[in-house]
Design goal:
Length: 147
Amino acid sequence: MTPDNKPHRNELFLPESGRGPELPLAESQVPAGFPSPADDYIARRLDLNEHLIPHPSATFFVRVAGDSMTGAGINDGDILIVDRSLEAVEGKVVIAVVDGELVVKRLRKRDGAWALLAESEGYPPIVAGEDGEFEVWGVVTSVIHSL
């Protein structure tokens, strides 16, 4: 936290150790088209950690600051779940360190060099070796935001 107790834009959050709260999971699926009658009972309990964090020791959370990734469904203020154990391959959205700052961008190969690309207009690519190096810290696996 910063001295004024506001989260720093590059503040990282680690998942709590142990299991999180288990929430009810309805057996029925919810149609995205026309409504249908739903069963009114809970099939089992759902642990969100089980679905969102397969590698807890390699996972961290980071809050997004800015709008360069809105085309990928990542908005200002969203929380990203990032897995450091996954391989950062072409086309993945990654967290990288560029000039000491964390950034979220899509990893691409351009003219034989790795580049970090925004998913919104008006943001230039960050190409490895041009304006300094970048280091990939992890692969974004999920985005948490309110509707």
